[in-house]
Amino acid sequence: MTQRTISEVSELVHSRQISPVELTRECLQKINALNSELNAFITVTAESALREAALAQDEIAAGKWRGPLHGIPVGLKDLIDTAGVRTTAASRVFADRVPVRDAEIVARLREAGAVLVGKQNLHEFAYGGSSVISAFGIPRNPIDSEYIAGGSSGGSAAAVGSGMCYAAIGTDTAGSVREPAALCGLVGLKPTYGLISTEGIIPLSPSLDHAGPITRSVQDAAILLDALTGTEWRHSESLDVEHGKWRVGIPRQFFFEDLDSEVATAVEAAIDELELMGCVVADVDVRVDTDRTLQAAEAYAEHRQRIASSADLYDPETLRRVRTGENISNEQYRAALRELGNIRREIAAIFDSVDVLVTPTTPIPAPRLSNLTTNIDQLRPTELVLLRNTRPANVWGTPAISVPCGRTSEGLPIGLQIIGPIGRDARVLQVARAFERACA
Q1: The dihedral of CA 73, 229, 120, 170: what is its sign?
Q2: Looking at the 3D structure of the chain, how many domains does it have?
Q3: Is the pTM of this model over 0.90?
Q4: Is 30 a catalytic residue?
Q5: Predicted local confidence at residue 83, as pLDDT
Q6: Is 308 within a domain?
Q7: Which 3-state string (H, E, C) describes the chain?
Q8: Mean pLDDT in the chain?
Q9: What is the pLDDT of residue 232?
Q10: Could you give the count of Cα atoms lying within 13 Å of 155 in the half-sphere of its Cβ?
């Protein structure tokens, strides 16, 4: 049951063929069985989850069904505040931090009736794309635990991929929802900048930070997006609308450079499938800004006071990354903010001629964990490769989704990224859903 999608089990819950308590117990059993190996959860909230499940069960029995998330077990990246439950950011700095208020998106999940089963492991303070650096150990890939789960939402992807929960909410500053989703064979959605509230989420770079769902299907991602934005049914019910021929732009420069050969083969096959679906495919030129001044400055500003008092509690590599923003002047920061506005206006013009852009989600499949832990000097360069294709959508502020599009000869998942114009999240979901169905 725990490998089914939300859209599948919610129908069974609504019709009372299965209870939220049964679903929650199954997920908690999976956590007990697998978490010691996959290290997906930092904190498991078993008692409160069973109480929430029992309440959902009673409400549904009384005819008070709230929608497709009602009674469904969901996890949260441990960067998202939960009242009365510690939120650590996978750091010793916050090892005992217990918020007094829920983040806005947690309040929305509770309103939708979701059952929250715990807080999931991540790269310390979300400053990395591997989750190799965490005060609570390294989350591992559910496909093969010898490989990384990705980052920074690595624990969230490991949990969903292994059936410990039906969906998870991660954060994405440079690809930290889409990249681990791709490496673990899942769907990862980064909505338009600002569409999902980041209030109550420990920030990395507020100008680039997003929150979004990791799920097993595009339909499930749309269901989560509806709950997190309060736009009841808008995205999930628009997935299967009739469409014309989508114009698909392929930005080969930058995004298709230096690809792993098996990734390249799988993505080209996916592009062929899009053409078979009736899409009009054409190469396009897109300028990509790779300057990291803005992120570095904002990350340092967030951590400056903590470093002054508690530098010894940070992992040394996290501390090094944060301190790269130490000497950025206010003038340089303001210039970077102005350039961000220019970039977002410039990308909007690209979508006058195409409906979506399509790229590989990651240039390479999941690296073997031992290659990074034994060659720590390769950690950051490898992360920058993994996040290369996802980061531009954070800079642009555009919606982007990763969907599975194949596997390597070793069985490692490969992801296809679909990017749309700002505010057209429904279009991105529609294209992704159509591709998912064509490949089923």
Answers
A1: positive
A2: 2
A3: yes
A4: no
A5: 98
A6: no
A7: CCCCCHHHHHHHHHCCCCCHHHHHHHHHHHHHHHHHHHCCEEEECHHHHHHHHHHHHHHHHCCCCCCCCCCCEEEEECCECECCECCCCCCHHHCCCCCCCCCHHHHHHHHCCCEEEEEECCCHHHCCCCCCCCCCCCCECCCCCCEECCCCCHHHHHHHHHCCCCEEEEEECCCCCHHHHHHCCCEEEECCCCCCCCCCECCCCCCCCEEEEEECCHHHHHHHHHHHHCCCCCCHHHCCCCCCCCEEEECHHHHCCCCCHHHHHHHHHHHHHHHHCCCEEEECCCCCCCCCHHHHHHHHHHHHHHHHHHHHHCCHHHHHHHHHHCCCCHHHHHHHHHHHHHHHHHHHHHCCCCCEEEEECCCCCCCEHHHHHCCHHHHHHHHHHHCCCCHHHHHHCCCEEEEEEEECCCCCEEEEEEECCCCCHHHHHHHHHHHHHHHC
A8: 97
A9: 55
A10: 33
| Structure confidence at residue 242 (pLDDT) | 66
Catalytic residue status for 207: no
Which candidate in 131, 176, 205, 236 is catalytic?
A: 176
| 183 & 279 share domain | no
pLDDT at 286: 97
Q: Are 234 and 427 in contact (CB under 8 A)?
A: no
Backbone angles phi, psi at 414, to 5 degrees: -125, 135
Cα separation of 255 and 313, whole Å? 37
Structural domain containing residue 144: 6-238
Instruction: Read off the amino acid at residue 333.
Output: Y
Task: Express each pLDDT in 107-162 by its tens digit.
Answer: 999 999 999 999 999 999 999 999 999 999 999 999 999 999 999 999 999 999 99
Q: What is the pLDDT of residue 258?
A: 98
313 within domain boundaries: no
Residue ranges of the chain with per-residue pLDDT less than 70? 1, 231-233, 242-243
Asked if 266 and 405 count as a contact pair (C-beta separation under 8 A), the reply is yes
- The two tokens of residue 161 are 């991929």
Residue 7 is a catalytic residue: no
Q: Which entry of 7, 30, 77, 134 is annotated as an active-site residue?
A: 77
Contact 321, 425 (CB under 8 A): no
* Backbone phi and psi for residue 377, each to the nearest 5 degrees, phi listed first: -70, -15
Q: Is residue 377 part of a domain?
A: yes
Q: What is the CATH number of the domain that holds 406?
A: 3.90.1300.10
Cα(293)–Cα(298) distance, rounded to whole angstroms?
9
